Amino acid sequence: MKKKKLALFLALTMVVASFAGCGGKKEKASDNGSAKQEAETETEGSEEGRYLMWRLYSEPKQWDPTNNSESVSDAICKQLFEGLTVSTSDGFKPGIAEKWDVSEDGKTYTFHLRKDAKWSDGSPVTAKDFEYSWRRICDPNFASEALQAITDYVVGATEYFEGTGEYDDIKATAIDDYTFEVVLKNATPFFPQLVANDVYLPIKKEAVEAAGEGWEKKPESAISNGAFYLEEYQVGSHLLLKKNPYYYAADEVKLPGIKAVFITDDNTAYQAYQAGEIDVMDHLPAEQIPQIVAEDPYVIVSADTGAQFLNFNVDKAPFDNVHVRKAVAKAIDRKQITEQVLKDGSIPASNFIAPTCQKTDGTHFRELEADGYPAEEYGIDPRQAKVEDAQAELAEAGYPNGEGFPEVEITYANTEKNKRLCEAIQQMLETNLNIKVKLRAEESSVFSSTKSKGDYQMAPGGWTNNPYDASGLIKLFYSQNGNNTCQWRWREYKGAPNDTTLNPGNKAFDEAFDKAMASLGEERDAAWEEANKALMDDMPITALYYPSFVALVNEDQVENVELTLGNSFMFSHAEIVE
């Protein structure tokens, strides 16, 4: 893996608890096949060799592929499971599907599965597994956070979820054991790349339904079909992922396993990396990133594929007032955030659709200007706070110079990066708007639940987007999306029973979204801009910055770690350097 240059996203213009070993308690599985029955926790000096040491910046609340919306969970899922296609550094390649056919109208995909794919208990992976997994996402009783991954595309999925259609009418169907047919609502040329994402991965029905909720956290029920399987999970500490001997390409997997350790403090993790106790990590300490980029030969810096933003809970006062939301948005100095707080090559945002998002002809929705920053749009200047405009918006809301404005709160996941970001925003709002802001930190899994339930006023959020189609990013704010955590819905959604206050401004967004999904070419591009305008006009969120991805892979200790186009690590070909 070669070092990538940090250039404030100029890449976009060209391409777009201890760490000493794998010790710990032994887990003996009862139902997960001979691979698990014989598994014991390996130490760093075992006969099979040491495990790769991988730092995760937070502990995920779950890693069930059919119910996932966290990037840290996505990283785990991709080590444990393999889908029809597989993410790579260039885009994607065939996975469980050896090949596929596409109908003339571009709406029907027929995937032909390889016959040597097996689960970690030795049983075959079949098209029925994909049918079960994809249809499970649409179950209204399950209320998956990944729902829109299926309902946006697959015929019959929305109708089943909403109670107007039947389970068997979901057009994700096992024709036979090794033929999986998917009928789409609209032609989707990037569909084979899309299904490499985590929510399209298969799970095994018998194991899932026997174990129930939390099945993926128990070694005896966490049956997987990827290069690794779950050997051990210690809450608050780590995951052990062991090589899956039943994986069809097991001969190519050189690692005996992976130890994924949960370290929330970036400085602690970096110290472990420096000591040779961590092989792979991202989320580096902000203050040290410039020096790391300058000095570490194995640093990786690349443009990320989405946007980071500040959620406003539009159902909670005072953020139920659009002028309050716009006042906060204009009072934030995004250049200061990227250059003085993050220091990692991220660039300030003036709009939600990121520069990495591509139009249907392959060009980008947003071109950066000569200084590497986007243009000012919708009253948001990426280079500075617009203090006078912000104060005018606050006065329009009935709070001139902040008078009478209640103390408000920013809730965030407890990481060092989030802490620094929210402290900066806190200071900007107090200085530029004369309002009091307090901060509340929560553990990552708790924070995710807090946002989903709408138990907050302001909260940071982010989303990566792979492939680069605008739908993958802007879909967050569709009324029927469980990740619409700003509670911005004009109609009720079964997956968000706590959101009972309806917001008319979201209707124009939904209509433009539906138009875009049913269109191609320039009409589709125009509809995405229309949806983006509805979002920016009502401002349930404000974009803060377009992130960069900065990571470390110690190539003195491990080689052949692959970084996908969407900035996920893949370890199926990694190898410890002797």
From TrEMBL:
Molecular-function GO term, any one: peptide transmembrane transporter activity
Residues covered by region (Disordered): 23-47
Membrane-crossing residue ranges in chain numbering: none
Pfam family, one: SBP_bac_5
Lipid bilayer topology: Lipid-anchor
GO CC, any one term: ATP-binding cassette (ABC) transporter complex
Stretches assigned to the Solute-binding protein family domain: 92-484
Any one GO BP annotation for this protein: peptide transport
Compartments in which it is found: Cell membrane
Keyword Signal: yes
Signal peptide residue numbers: 1-20
Keywords tagged on the record: Signal, Transport
InterPro entries, alphabetized: Peptide/Ni-bd, SBP_5, SBP_5_CS, SBP_5_dom
Matches recorded under PROSITE patterns: PROKAR_LIPOPROTEIN, SBP_BACTERIAL_5
Entry-linked Gene3D superfamilies: Dipeptide-binding Protein, Domain 1, Dipeptide-binding Protein, Domain 3, Periplasmic binding protein-like II
Family per record: Belongs to the bacterial solute-binding protein 5 family.
UniProt name for this protein: Peptide ABC transporter substrate-binding protein
